[in-house]
């Protein structure tokens, strides 16, 4: 459970940490859109290069970032295998056949791209949470969604819920480890290969975890009520968000990357070397 890095903050004082959370959230949204526009291996590599550059500038250990992939690597591998064996291509001959299973070269390429896309979608949000505190993300999200207040949407409450959820993720992970260790001391077996036995063994963990979560939620509500919390009306921030020149430059760089990704996909000028950059 300690492999979950979302919600954990790694302080290093880098330029990525000091960046305005509004710009970081905007870049994250732009990045997610870019991932779905990547089609060739060259475009995936191009986007991965800038992601690696962002990780280097954040001064967060790469292993700390890659640690977050442990929670999704099984899903990625399972999806990749399924796409490889069930992919069909009527324009080419299969490399291998086993009954209803067919393996095509184009299917292998497509499965690699799918796995690459899923990994990219996990890494950037991990970098965001490692370089931004829940309070910063809450303030940034509330500021970005502030125009929706005119539609009477509870923007502050939504941002507060997200902030509390991110803050409680590491706490719940630590609580889960304690409960699992306590159950192991009582003879519980979580390493069984039988999925039904494994699910049954998790019940003594989930029930105390739910009880503990509700207790923490009740304590948090009492703490907020004792501090006279009555919503966003009339509230001020201790730290006001201010953007710097570096934030604008970073956003412009990522916009330029987005334009390059679009150009690699659509090739508006019809340059002949673009199709040769990758499959």
Summarize the structure.
With 279 residues, this protein is an all-alpha fold. It is built from ten helices and two strands; from the N terminus they run αααααββααααα.
Model description:
This protein has 279 residues and is mostly helical. Helix content is 65%, strand content 2%. The chain contains 10 helices and 2 strands; from the N terminus they run H-H-H-H-H-E-E-H-H-H-H-H. The protein has helices at 15-18, 21-37, 41-58, 62-66, 73-86, 105-131, 134-144, 155-185, 195-226, 245-266; strands at 96-98, 101-103. The protein has a two-stranded antiparallel ribbon with strand order 1-2. Helix 2 packs antiparallel against helix 6 and helix 2 (21-37) packs across helix 7. It starts with 14 loop residues before the first helix and ends in a 13-residue tail after the last helix.
């Amino acid at each position: 459970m300690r492999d979950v890095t979302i919600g954990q903050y790694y302080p290093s004082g880098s330029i990525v940490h000091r960046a305005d959370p509004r710009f970081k959230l905007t870049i994250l949204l732009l990045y997610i859109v870019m991932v779905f526009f990547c089609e060739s291996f060259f475009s995936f590599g191009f986007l991965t290069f800038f992601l690696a550059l962002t990780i280097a500038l954040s001064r967060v250990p790469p292993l700390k970032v890659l640690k977050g992939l442990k929670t999704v690597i099984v899903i990625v591998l399972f999806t990749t295998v399924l796409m490889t064996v069930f992919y069909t291509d009527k324009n080419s001959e299969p490399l291998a056949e086993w009954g209803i299973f067919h393996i095509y070269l184009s299917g292998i390429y497509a499965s690699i791209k799918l796995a690459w896309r899923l990994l990219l979608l996990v890494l950037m949000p991990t970098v965001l949470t490692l370089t931004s505190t829940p309070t910063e993300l809450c303030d940034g999200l509330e500021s970005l969604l502030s125009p929706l207040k005119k539609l009477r949407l509870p923007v502050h409450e939504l941002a507060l819920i997200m902030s509390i959820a991110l803050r409680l993720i590491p706490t719940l992970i630590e609580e889960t480890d304690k409960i699992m260790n306590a159950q192991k001391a009582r003879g519980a077996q979580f390493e069984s290969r039988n999925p039904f036995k494994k699910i049954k063994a998790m019940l003594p963990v989930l029930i105390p975890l739910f009880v503990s979560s509700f207790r923490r939620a009740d304590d948090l509500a009492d703490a907020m009520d004792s501090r006279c919390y009555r919503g966003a009306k009339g509230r001020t921030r201790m730290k006001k968000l201010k953007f710097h020149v570096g934030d604008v430059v970073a956003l412009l760089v990522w916009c330029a990357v987005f334009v390059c990704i679009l150009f690699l996909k659509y090739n508006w000028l019809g340059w002949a070397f673009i199709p040769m950059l990758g499959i």
